[in-house]
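Supplementary material to the annual report.
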Amino acid sequence: MIELNINGTARGVDADPATPLLWALRDTLKMTGTKFGCGIAQCGACTVLVDGMAVRSCQQPIEGLVGSEITTIEGAKGPVAEALHAAWVEHQVPQCGYCQSGQLMSAVALLSDTPKPTDADIDAAMQGNICRCATYVRIRAAIHTAAGKLGAA
Amino acid sequence: MNAPILSTTRRGMLALCVGAGTGLVLGFRVLEAAGKDAAPSAANAEFNPFVRIDGAGKVTVIVKHLDKGQGVATGLATLVAEELNARPDQIVVEFAPSDSRYKNLLFGMQGTGGSTSMANSFDQYREAGAAARQMLTEAAAAAWKVPAAEVKIEAGELRHASGKRAGLGEFAEAASKLPVPSTITLKKPEDWIYIGKSFPRVDVKTKSEGSVNLFAMDLHMDGMLVAVTARPPKWGATLRGFDAAAAKASPGVAGVIEIPQGVAVLAASTWQAIKGRELLKLDWDETGAETRSSDAMFAEYRALAEKPGISVRNTGNGAKGIEGAAKIVEATYEFPYLAHAPMEPINITILYDGASAQFWTGSQFQTVDHGVAAQALGLPPEKITIHTMWAGGSFGRRAIYDAHYFAEAAAIAKAWGKPQPIKLVYTREDDIKGGYYRPAFLHKARVGLDADGNILGWEHRIVGQSILKGTPFEAMAVKNGIDDTSVEGVSNMTYANAGMQVDLHTTDVKVPVLWWRSVGHTHTAYVMETMIDELAAAAGIDPVEYRLRLMKDDPRKVAVLKLAADKAGWSTPAPEGRFRGVALHHSFGSTVAEVAEVSVKDGKITVEKVVCAVDCGVAVNPDNIAAQMEGGIGYGLGAILHDAITLKDGAVEQANFDGYPSLRITGMPVIEVHVVPSTEKPSGVGEPGVPPIGPAVANAVFKATGKRVRDLPFTKHGLV
Ligand code: FES
Ligand code: FES
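Predicted assembly:
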């Protein structure tokens, strides 16, 4: 049993220590907001925050995460996440939606660090997140909108 | 227009006939003995197969199509909300069961594809909403003792001039028991409040919050096992034997079973199933397998292109005019296999108890999936239930003529033999290597022009696999040996010409192929629109001007091209360091023109901006049309720049997004979408944005570099 701090709660995970966080979340804890897209850190569908940094949970064995603060889409709360959710709705970003948990977690990490990102900042922070529906134009616009709202608040 | 005839199995026969003017005649006969469901309840009163309203006034729209991101659930909800004058917050959607009442009126079976969802549902769902409206106003009128004509629904509320008001739920039960009106009156276009106004998407909020329990991949059930399958490394290889000892000893593995598709490993979790599969020792017999490499295959295709094939079109003077032409342009094109790679890999959950079975997946061809499932399990069709889930993309991949993953799930469940839910999961590697690709194609074209640039003769040969040959759709779609999906976009070319001769070689390769967002147009548009660009250059005429001249009899296409050119500033020079290319293509009833602007740095191109114009008839949801154009452009662009599935001795060389890259945000151009105002019937939007992007970029690259890219992807030429 490995104890992890997920969304502010201590959770016992009954899985092999080498299990990637992605599968511990999805299959053991049944927290399926974090998605499986590639399993090799190429697509970003599985992005979560570990101590505030966006990481690909498919490449993080749970044994290495003891003592870290893990935030998943289910626990993405607070002004930055809320501003992003609202902007995602305003710009009608999702199409199929499957990549969007990962997109939002990368965007949360970006705006937490860089409140007024340029297009280049957005490209750098979001290039690990594939969207096969190619919602990128709206992702970019929505991040700018959220940043604007946060700056004005 | 054809009268949409709906036969219902649950509530009898619903026959819709389009009458004169806006009035529609609708006869609804409830066959008492025909296994009628329980009477509509107050909890959720059923007005017809598409609309239910509960006591609280919540309107459930039953969506007969798969929503895989293209927005059809919102589109159909819009049509019902429009006729009911319901508020967006009153509407919820639910996917229809697999049932003949829900067939695609253009397919004759239940299924989503060919960008037909809105086209075939536009009247049907408006009629369903209008029927419910009329029944509600009638019920309210009876209760209020006023003439029905005086009762209106406004802002989701029943109202009468006397000041009487009621929510939709108040009379839902009574209304649903009234006879279906014999005449249905649709709202006039000038009275529309939602159509044409970007009704908010019904799925955006949940999809912005983690999409909990939306996708089949996310399902968990008590006692569920996850299965992954080891499939043959080459098409046509068969299993000689295997050793599962190590896999069976792997943590969490519940069993290893042989099925016709390969060897399935069942485990308590996905990760354990994947790990267990890695430990299988498999012995494949490759005697009958496909063992060619892509290079050898294209060499064969090139040789075939030297010989005449089956004649597809021979009009006017055919190719004869080429001989006396002032100028001859000749080119050969090669297109690789492409994988769809939807973001949610293929997966399906089955629960089979020996006597009946339920399936959960993003089912796209429910009728086919249902039939294959019943056959694979040896059960009568009524013992099969399909729960259609929201799908994480498809791009054609889930519209599968052989329902192969239903068959595979059924084989696993049958062999397993215990009534336990089993989720069959494809990893990304299984997806990329799994076949059902856009077929590889070769085109050879030769065109002769007179001194003024007029086309005297066009000779065109196409070589590639048929998507539909050997499938249940063959009889319907393959005529005289010609699969229209191999030639669409060339055979129906509309640029003025004095003669055109098109022929086809259908090749035999063991790689399974499938429609990929915009099907044949993925390659035919590239050829036609880069050829037209070459012809314009040969004639010394501006490429927009040249196209307008050759399609002057088609005002809708002319309007689309002019709009795109105008918005892109075609008549003014491109900004410093940028080069423009244009393309126009008609597919799925819609015409799309795109102007791409590229820049070049150190020999590498960047697509900076795309201006798109579309005519898709009535724009039911302009924002969603824009989203589909943006998505189509991004999807097509990623493929033409980066992607190819290649074979080495018959085995696929790519495995995941590292070898088969997707467009990323860094490669996404700025996109502007302009919709041509129209009162024509709505046509496709999911696919038609794809075909023009390749040729528009290729034509811009020619302007920038002088290089004509005729075999894809662009990475082959060091341009990206
Ligand atoms: S699933 Fe982790 S990056 Fe794709
Ligand atoms: S919305 Fe479909 S993959 Fe991003």
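Residues 2 and 128 of chain A are 28 Å apart (CA to CA).
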